Each structure stands twice: as structure tokens, then as C-alpha cells.
Amino acid sequence: MLLDRLAAGPSRAARITHTEHLPPRAGRHAVWPDRIRPEVLAAVRAAGIEHPWAHQARVAEHALDGDSVVVATGTASGKSLAYLVPVLSALVDGSEAPNGRGATTLYLAPTKALAADQCRSVKELSQPLGTSVRAAVYDGDTPFEEREWIRQYGTYVLTNPDMLHRGILPSHPRWSSFLKALKYVVIDECHTYRGVFGSHVAQVLRRLRRLCARYGASPVFLLASATAAEPSVAARRLTGLPVIEVADDASPRGELVFALWEPPLTELEGEKGAPVRRTATAEAADLLTDLTVQGMRSITFVRSRRGAELISVIAQERLAEVDRSLAGRVAAYRGGYLPEERRALERALHSGDLLGLAATNALELGLDISGLDAVVIAGYPGTRASLWQQAGRAGRAGQGALAVLVARDDPLDTFLVHHPEALFDQPVESTVLDPDNPYVLAPHLCAAAAELPLTEEDLKLFGPACEELLPQLEAAKLLRRRTRAWHWTRRERAADLTDIRGEGGRPVQVVEEGTGRLLGTVDAGAAHTAVHEGAVHLHQGRTYLVRSLDLEDSVALVEQATPAYSTVARDTTAISVLETDIEVPWGDGRLCYGSVEVTNQVVSFLRRRLITGEVLGETKLDLPPRTLRTRAVWWTVTEDQLDAARINPEILGGALHAAEHASIGMLPLFATCDRWDIGGVSVPLHPDTLLPTVFVYDGHPGGAGFAERAFHTARDWLTATREAIASCECDAGCPSCIQSPKCGNGNDPLHKRGAVRLLTVLLRGAAESGPAQQAG
């Protein structure tokens, strides 16, 4: 067995904390609805598919009935065919209209790579249908000379929400014939539209529906999602329409062996003398190397762009020691690459020239990579939905496969590899998004008004928060009311007011200093931490040092180098309460939810030795502070509770700080977030609460719904946090329980036992308050 070969040797075998065997599942067939065009059914049969799975036939039936529908089934369950069959049937029908363009379809994907991949699939499937299906990708990489043809003649246009927001909707008169005929809108991988990004996309879709209505169209929405909790609820929040749910997966599945893998402790000491585990990056690179040597096709998913580059570099070096020809069969794949680099990697992966890939979640999202033997996941990806989506990349076409989750030295990862029931016995999460977030809604009201004057009738579409926002937009001289409609008043493009990815600001261009060559881009929100002066930047397996960061011109100048270390930014954070929306008693303490203002400043960076993670030194930085108005959950404790927990003033700061770190680490188990989407502050005496207080806040303007979810699951969330700290084997705290990789205070002070006692007393108060007073 493949896992036995990877775990050969006593030290490796001990790293496997749990193995889950997911049995194979037989498929259940059905028949396509008889309203599907016979030419389409013939094309599907020509592609080797005689009968649909039961869920595919149900989706097609709903689509033909004019019902918006979401199909939420496992990876490789044929979701694409479920919506493609009714769509292609409609396009063939439309081709017989007098003008030859009686129906059109708009396809939205969260990434360019997925749209390009789906376009290839559509063209292959629809080849027997001739010119009745004219599929084309319309995104930032589309040559300008092709764009007019697509607007005029494309019947199946594949794009992304960014291009819809910035390019298509503001230019809707040029798309009028396409929008008039729009019958279906396909939203692929819709579970990725969560948090701030999901909230923005929800408003973009409302703008699309409004323009379609003006052109006389009322498209049906067909959504495809990984397995998710309450997919119809999430789809309704995303589209603003009632959506029928199809979640009974009738496709067959091969056996999947899923191993949980914990890297060993090293002899090194980290901050404050804490024990240090071998990094998930180093372990995953070893596994990728071994899989490649054995000729196994595999993908290693990693959380960060830097991690993807690092794993590929380490694997290439180790493969070269075995066989120099193997080194070229492993590569990295991540966002920020130039379009031609992404396309070349996708072709190499499809052809089999590449055996192994270290990838960010850009490859999680639906690229049709068949026949993979194994998936290695370097660090829990933040949600169970993403975990299963990534693991599902292996074993397509029904064969057995292996998935390995390699734990990072992190509270949540450590908790999960020792509590497999939290992964395998729990349903996937609900998708969290908040279209009414005023920071999201306001710029879309402006964009809508710029597209067509905004009427009172339109406001129902955008939600109840409009009434409060419109006077503010008028006062800011962004909108002006004339008679019965609001008009955009500026010369600038209203669509440029917001970045729907929630990053804000222009991306920072990464430029090679000696040549002036553009290497790629970094999101504006990440620039202070990713490309500050002195940062190590990885691109296509090459290492660069950042020589300067110009925030005004959004340019980072780099030069190629080979430092024996990586860099990690450190920051400081202060927080003030603006408004408390909800407050519930937890014994004498309080659990609260409301609005806060956060002031953050990157102050230094650490240099860490590659592979081991050993800290080599710290360098100060001089970067401007940034302020953020957002949403937070916070809890307070009283003097009596501190006495009950045996917390004296000397250890109070460390106990609060440790509880804050661990709770941030554990929140992704309860909300669809990443620990880097959220932040925290702990204060022994906060000026607004006048009590010891721990805050956890959304790292996005106006909030993303994560802190609200934390408030409503607070008892379970903080109980798991206490358990994670108490069960850790270390004496005084380590990265597996209370140390944070992004702590601006160098993980000082921290008090592990104090945090456990403090949370015990706090949770006792929650239990005493009774269920009627619990949040949610």
C-alpha cells in the first residue's frame, strides 16, 4: 500500500496519528429529462457517458423548469455535466432563432485557471454541436482584438466576478445583445464565495440581475459547490433568489485512505525555549519527493504562495540527488504568476510531464486533474469543505487513492491530528457571508448608479441597509438625487471604488531591480508583511531579497539572492470599542459582539532558518500604521473570576494573551475562516471595558461574519480552545498550543496554565448563565 511505503521506518510510522479508511461507494444512474435536445445527448454519449448519475438528472430537470438550483456534491461527482447538459440544450435551441443568438450563458469561476479549464471541457463536449455553441473566456488575459467578437457572437462566455464587476457591468451597453438573451448564469465552486469576497460577489450578482431585468431577461442561476452545510441557504444569500438544493451524491467513489500526520519534535528551541516541531513544509516536501521517486502523480496543497515555492524548491533539490531528470518533473503553482506561466504549468500537468505539484488553493478549485494517486495537504486548509475538496483531487475515475494531512505547529492542526472525530465525524461548515456589510454595499450602490440611475424600486434588490447608506453617499457627494433616482456624480469609474477580493488598494508590483522585469504582484493588504524591505520573496523556485518597498507607487524592488533563511513580519495592534451590539452575561463576566476600530503597524521581521524554523534574529521596520473599522467578539472577566482562577496580576497578561492566541487558532473549526482572516488583542485592563478583556476581530473593513459566528458558537469554540491548550504535551507553551506565528510581541508574555484556569472559570460562568442567555 502507498501509505505503508511512505511510512517505512520506525520514525516515520510514529508520525501517523490516525488513519481513516473511507469505503468505496457504488453509483446510482438515472435518465436525462426528455426535454434535452437529442444532439446534446448524442454529444454526451460520444464523450463516453451513457447514463447520468441521479443528481445530474435532477439538476437538469430543475434547470429546464426555470428553477435556480445548487448542486453540492463531492469532488469528481460530475457537477459540471449536471449544469452543462441543460445549458447546451438551451444554446442549441437558441441557435435556431432568427438572429442565431436566441440564448446565452454566463459562467463565473473564482479563478482564471478554472475558467480556462472549463472552456477546454465545453469546447470538447460541444464539438459535435458545431457553431451553435460558441464558448470563449473573457478575462484580464483575453487579447483586446478577441473581446469585441466575444461580446457580439459568444454564446457561452466564461469569466470571473472581478471582470464582471470591473469590465462587463460598467460596459453593459456593449453587452446588450448578450444580456438580453441571457438564459443561464452558472456559478462554479460557489462555496469559495465567503467572507468579504463572497459579500462583494453577492452584490455584483444583484447588479447583474438588475441590468438583465432592464434588458428584459431573467436568468436562471445554476450553482455548483463542494459539499457544504445548508447549500441552498448560502446560495440564496449569494444570489438573492430562492435556490433549490441537490446534495444527494449518486456518483461512485473509490476507496480513500486518509492519514493524519504529525511532524516530529526537533532538538531545537524556539521562542522562550519552547520545543519546535519539524515544519509541515519540510515534511510535505519529503512526501512529495518520495511520491515522485515512486512515479506517483500527486499534488501537495499548501496555504501560502511562499510555502508552495519552498516545497517545490526543496523537492527539486532532493530529487536531483536521486535522479537529475526527476527534478524537472516537480513545480510550484500559485497566484501572482504571469498568465503564460500559469497556462504552461496547467498544460504540463494535464499532459503528465509534471508528476508533482506544490500548489496553493488556486488548484483546489475544480481543475479537471484526473488520475492522481495522492494528495498531500500541508496544514489544515481552514475549513472541512476545503479539506475534502483538496483530498477529492486524488482517486478520480473511481480508483483508490491516498490523502495525507500534515499538521503545522499550530493549535488547530495539533488539535485535529489528535481529535480525528473533529474532521471525520462532523459535517462541513456553513458558508459565512454578509452582503449587508456597509463597507461592501456602499461602493456597489455607487457602481449600480453609474451603470443605470438607481431608483427606489431597485433598493429592494440590494437590501434594507440601503436606506441608511444613501444619505451618507449623498453627503459624501458620490451620489446625487434627481427627481426619483440617484445618479453617480464623479468622472472616475465607480467600479474602481472597491476591490471585490477585499484586499483594498492597488496590487504591489514586484520588479527585479537590475532588469526592470515584472515578476508578479502582491495584494496591497499583504504588502507590509510580504514585501517589506529585507523580506525574502520566492518566485518560480528562485529566491529574491526585497531591497525597497514604495507604498506610494505600489512597487517592491527585489534582487535575486540565496539567503539561508525565510522572513516573518511582526506587528503591534491596539483596539477600541465603537459600539456594543449584543452583550450576554457569562457568570460575572460578559460575552460581547459589536463594532471596533483596530490600529495595526508592522514593526519588525524575524529571520528563520530554512527547514528548522530556528530564529536567527530580528530587524526593526519603519512602516506607517493602518486603521481598520470592523466587527469583533470579546469577553471580559472580573476580579472575583480571577481570584477563582488563581490568576494574580503577575501572570494575568500572559494568561489572557495565551487564551487569545489559542482561540484565534481554533476559530477556523467553527467559522469558515483562516487564522490570517482574523486578529486578536488581549489587555489586562482595557480602557473601554475597564476589565481584563480578550478581543477577536475580523481582519476586513466592516467585518466578514467570522466574529459573529464566533459569538454564536462561543461556548463550543472556547471549550475546544481550553482543551487544545490543556492537552498539549509541552510544559510552558509552544506553537502547538499558545504561541502564534504572527504575534507582534514575540509571544511574550504567555502563561499556559493560567490560560487553562482562566478559560475554565469563564466557561463555568457560561454554563451557570443557562441556555436562555447563551449567544445564538
Automatic annotation (TrEMBL):
One of its GO terms (molecular function) is 3'-5' DNA helicase activity. Residues 60-246 form the Helicase ATP-binding domain. Residues 283-439 form the Helicase C-terminal domain. Gene3D superfamilies: P-loop containing nucleotide triphosphate hydrolases. GO terms for biological process: interstrand cross-link repair; nucleotide-excision repair. Keywords: ATP-binding, Helicase, Hydrolase, Nucleotide-binding. Pfam families: DEAD (PF00270), Helicase_C (PF00271), MZB (PF09369), WHD_HRQ1 (PF22982). This is ATP-dependent helicase. The lineage of its organism: Bacteria, Bacillati, Actinomycetota, Actinomycetes, Kitasatosporales.
